[in-house]
Design brief:
Layout: H1 25-36, E1 43-47, H2 54-65, H3 82-88, E2 95-98, H4 111-121, E3 131-135, H5 143-154, E4 160-166, H6 174-177, E5 181-184, H7 190-201, H8 205-214, H9 219-229, H10 232-245, H11 250-253, H12 261-279, H13 290-299, H14 302-318, H15 325-340, H16 345-350
Parallel strand pairs: 1-4, 1-5, 2-3, 3-4
Helix pairs in contact: 1-2, 4-5, 7-8, 7-9, 8-9, 12-14, 12-15, 14-15
Length: 351
């Protein structure tokens, strides 16, 4: 790890706590209250689904812990003090962040980076008295890196706080998890996420609902869909659902998604979850046209939908590693096509 302070784009350079969406503000306040009472654990592990805002909360909490304002009950980070200006500019000498280097070996956080971080944490603080390290996503720590962090997680120098975040805490070694206080974040209510997305992405209610549905209700993931992909992929997938349910070729359809197998996996997971919900009597959220949704529900068995939903989840997790995008998209659509095959079709073929 370089000695120069890092400034990844997920440590927000804005003006303070207003950077946080409304569902994360109560958790920030709870953590700062614990800090003010001297009860904040030195090692926090933030968990929750991807697209909920764990990285954002980790970054704002780090800024708040280094904020020199708000000492008389004001809000932190204040965005105005020297500490906030330095964190906002990516130049605070008492803040370090670790994340997988782009193009690095298998997307891992390696042991040399952690050793550099540990050395930094044992130096004296230069400004506020605290030193803060943020590791996101911490499940990318490889085995040697995780082992190098254990002693610091258990017996950190005075005034040191480590903030770890991941959507896959199960991938962390138990020795790391057991040394942290776990703070699980829950998804916001649909209405809260919808209103935030409408204001944030300048999207209409219908587009916001579709993006949220595709993102499984995770608002930051939905915002990314609207910002980077729009709903064109959604419209393309609708046509593919029609073709696959009529016996179309999933291998041919995979060409559309070879550059975005992650988006395909997320969208298919959301669609399967929506079909299962409706199959069990939940109201239609409008993710699919009602005629198509009802056709697919009649056509596919609940068991098939459920098993395919689980397999798509496995495909999604495998995409954390570099893979051939075309092959990944083919695997996803082959499973989807099998699930949408009319009930009894497989038995007829076998007979």
């Amino acid at each position: 790890m370089s000695e120069a302070p890092e400034h990844p784009d997920w440590v927000p350079p804005g003006q303070g706590r207003g950077q946080l969406p409304p569902w994360l503000l109560p958790e920030l306040d709870r953590l700062l209250a614990l800090h003010d009472q001297g009860r904040l654990h030195h090692a926090l592990l933030l968990t929750g689904r991807t697209g909920l805002g764990k990285r954002l909360l980790a970054g704002v909490l780090a800024r708040a812990l280094l904020c020199q304002g708000g000492e008389e009950g004001g809000q932190r980070p204040c965005g105005e003090c020297r500490g906030c200006r330095l964190t906002g500019g990516g130049a605070h000498p008492d803040l370090r962040t670790l994340s997988p280097s782009r193009g690095g070996e298998r997307g891992e956080i390696v042991v040399d980076s952690v050793r550099g971080l540990v050395d930094f944490l044992h130096l004296s603080a230069q400004l506020s008295g605290s030193r803060v390290a943020v590791i996101v996503p911490c499940d990318r720590l490889n085995r040697a890196a995780a082992n190098s962090l254990l002693k610091t997680l258990e017996e950190p120098p005075a005034g040191v706080f480590l903030i770890l975040a991941t959507g896959r805490p199960g991938r962390l070694p138990p020795t790391v998890r057991s040394r942290c206080t776990v703070r699980g974040l829950s998804p916001p209510p649909w209405g809260t996420a919808r209103q935030w997305l409408i204001e944030r992405a300048a999207a209409g209610a219908e587009r916001a609902d579709k993006a949220l549905a595709l993102a499984g209700g995770m608002p930051l993931a939905a915002e990314r869909i609207l910002r980077e992909q729009g709903l064109e992929g959604y419209e393309a997938l609708l046509q593919q659902l029609h073709r696959l349910s009529a016996g179309g070729d999933p291998v041919k359809e995979a060409e559309t998604w070879e550059r975005a197998p992650e988006a395909l996996a997320d969208a298919v997971s959301a669609i399967l979850a929506d079909l299962l919900r409706q199959r069990h009597g939940a109201p239609d959220r409008g993710l699919l046209p009602s005629t198509l949704a009802q056709q697919l529900i009649r056509q596919a068995s609940p068991e098939s939908l459920h098993q395919t939903f689980l397999r798509i989840g496995e495909h999604r997790r495998s995409l954390e590693q570099p893979l051939n995008g075309r092959l990944a998209a083919e695997a996803i659509l082959l499973d989807l096509a099998a699930a949408l095959r009319p009930v009894g079709h497989s038995a007829a073929r076998q007979a």
